[in-house]
Amino acid sequence: SVCDDETGGSTTNEQATFNLFSKVEEITQGDQTILINFYEDEALENQITDTENFVNTQANPQVVYVEAVDLDTDCTKTTTLTIEVIP
C-alpha cells in the first residue's frame, strides 16, 4: 500500500506510483536464477515494463500478476500481488 499522491493531478483519485521492482528480492528470496515479470492481466499479455514507476490502472485494490521464471530449469510459476492506494 502507498498513499495517494499527485499522480493524475489529484491526491484523492486513488492513483499512485508503485515501485514493483522493490518486491523482487522478497519474491525470489535472493535467488539470482529467478527472473520476475509483472503483468496487468491474468493471461500474462500486458507486461509492466516500468516496474519502478508503475501507476495503478484500476480502482482499489488492483491485482498485479507475477511470473517467476527459473533460468536454470525454464520452469515458471505465477502468483499475484495486490496493490492498494490509501486515500
Short recap of the structure:
The chain has 87 residues and is mainly beta. The protein contains one helix and seven strands.
Number of domains: 1
Series of H and E elements = EEHEEEEE
Strand order of the largest sheet: 3-5-6
Beta-strand content bin = 35-45%
The beta-strand count equals: 7
Number of helices: 1
Q: Extract low-pLDDT stretches.
A: none
In whole angstroms, the N-to-C terminal distance is 10 Å
**Biggest sheet statistics:** 3 strands, antiparallel
**Helix coverage percent:** under 10%
Outline the structure in words:
The strands form three sheets. Strands 3-5-6 form a three-stranded antiparallel sheet. The chain is elongated and about 45 Å long. Strand 5 and strand 6 (76-83) form a beta hairpin. It has one helix at residues 24-28; strands at 2-3, 17-18, 34-39, 54-55, 62-70, 76-83, 85-86. The longest helix is centred in the N-terminal third of the chain and has 5 residues, at 24-28. It has one domain. The mean pLDDT is 92. Helices cover 6% and strands 36% of the residues. It has 87 residues and is mainly beta.
